Amino acid sequence: MATNNLISFPPQGNGPRLKNKTLLIPEMNRIGAHLLAATFRSFGARARVMDTYKGMDLGKEYTSGKECYPCQVTMGDILYFIEEEKQSLGDSFNPGDYVYFMPEAEGPCRFGMYNKYQRIVLDSFPGLQELQIISPSNSDAYSLGDILEESEEQDFRKTAYFSMVVTDILERLLWKIRPYERDPGMTDTFIQRSAKSLEHAFQLYGRRKLFGKIMDKLGEIVKEAKSMVDPTIPSKPLIGIVGEIYLRMHEHSNQNLIRVLEKHGAEVVNASLCEWVNYVSYDGLREARKEFLLNLKKLRVGPMMDSVKKILDFGVDLLYKEFRQKKVYKEVRKLIDIPEDHKISHLEHTLKKDDLFSFDLSTEACLSIPSIVEFVKGGYNGVVNVYPFTCMPSMATSAIVKPFLRNLKMPYLDVPCDATIQPGREATIRTFMYQAYQHFSLDIS
Ligand code: SF4
C-alpha cells in the first residue's frame, strides 16, 4: 500500500486546527491507518499516513529507554517524517503546515504521556514548536471537537468507526485464508489490493455515509478471497492473540508474529481493533454511572445532571458502535465463517463469573484476560500474549492467566517485544506450536 498518497481537497469542512494543514497519521495498524486517513480526506482534511519503523534509530536516540516501546516507535516515525520532508521540500518546509495525530488515554498507563513527551522533544528542535500535536482522549471517547467542524463530528465518528470494523473484517479474512492459500503469497497480494480499493471507497463515500456501497465492495472481496483456498489443506491448530493493542497491530514491532506462527502451522485470530474503541465507550459509561450514584448519594443535583449527560453520551455512542459492528459481521458471516467479535459487557460478565480480575482496575488486562477465557471455551488450541517489554497491564494478564491455563493444559506463550531480535524467539514459537499441535490432535481424536 502506498504511504504518500496525499490528495488535496478544498479546505472546507476542516475544524480550526486543520485549516490548510496536513494531518499526519501514525501507522499502528497498516490497513486501519490508511482507511482512517481516507476517511479524514473524505471530510476535506489533507490526511497522510507516515512511514513507520524507518526512524527507529531516531526513536531510540530521543528516548531514554525507560519509555514504552510504542512511544519509541512513534517518536521515530514523526522525527523520520520531518527529516524526510525537510529533505524533499528544502527551504519551503514549514513545520506549521502539519498537525500530528497522537491520541492518548487517561488511566494508570503511560500512553497518556506519549504526546506530552513527544511535545518536549519536538520543542527542543528550532522551529518545530510550530508543529501541532492533537491528542483526542479516552476521557471524552476520543472527541474530535477541535479538529473538525462541530456539525461534521458525529458523521466523521460514524465513518471512522465503520472504517475500523472494515479493517477488522479484512484482517480476519486474511488470517482465515492465508494458512490455506493455493499459491504462497496470493492472499497478501490480494488483501493489499483490496485495502487500496477500500481506501478509495472510503474517500469517495465516507463523508456521505454511503456504507452500503462500501459493504458491496467488501462483499465482492470476501467472495473472491474464498476462491483462493486450497480445500485439500487440512485444518490447523487455532491460536488466539491478546495483548497490548499497538504491539498486536504493528507488524514491525511484533516482528511479524502472526506470520511466524503461521509458518509453524497455525491459523491465527488476533484480538480486534474495535475491541479497544468499544471498551473506551463502555468504560466511560461505567464510570459515568458510578459518578451518578455517588452524586445521588450526596444529593448533588448539578453534578448529578452532568453525570446523566455523560451516561447518555457514552451510552448512545456504545449502542451505535455495537449496532454497526454487529450489522457488518452479520452480512460478512453470511459469506464466510470468520469469528465474531465479542461485546465488552460480555467480557466483564466473564471476568466476574470466573473472578479473575476487575473492570474497576481498567487497562487492557480487562480485555485480554476474559478474551483468553473465551478462547478456551471456543476450542482454541493455544494463546499468545504479545506486549511491549515491561508493559504493566500485559504482565498482570500473564501473571493471572498462567496458572489458570496450566490447569487446563492449554498452551500459552508470552511474547514481550522491544527493538532487539531475541535469538531464541523462533525456537520458542516452534515449541509453542508443537504443544498447540498436541492439543489440537487431542481435540480431533
Ligand atoms: S499499555 Fe503497556 S505499552 Fe501501553 S502505555 Fe501502558 S504500559 Fe505502556
Question: What's the quick description here?
Answer:
The chain is of the alpha/beta class and 445 residues long.
Topology (elements, then pairings):
Blueprint: E1 22-25, H1 30-42, E2 46-49, H2 56-61, H3 69-89, E3 98-101, H4 111-123, E4 132-134, H5 150-177, H6 186-205, H7 211-226, E5 238-243, H8 245-249, H9 257-263, E6 267-270, H10 274-297, H11 301-333, H12 344-354, H13 365-377, E7 382-388, H14 392-408, E8 412-417, H15 425-444
Helix pairs in contact: 1-5, 1-6, 5-6, 5-7, 5-11, 6-7, 10-11, 12-13, 13-14
The protein binds iron/sulfur cluster.
Iron/sulfur cluster binds at residues 68, 70, 109-111, 244, 364, 388, 391-393.
Structural summary, described in words:
By secondary structure, the chain is of the alpha/beta class. Among the domains are: 22-142 and 150-154, Rossmann fold (3-Layer(aba) Sandwich); 235-271 and 343-445, Rossmann fold. Helix content is 56%, strand content 9%. It has a 4-stranded parallel sheet with strand order 2-1-3-4. The protein has a 4-stranded parallel sheet with strand order 6-5-7-8, sandwiched between helices. It is globular and about 65 Å long. It starts with 21 loop residues before the first strand and ends with a helix. Mean pLDDT is 92; it is low at 1-13. Iron/sulfur cluster binds next to α14.
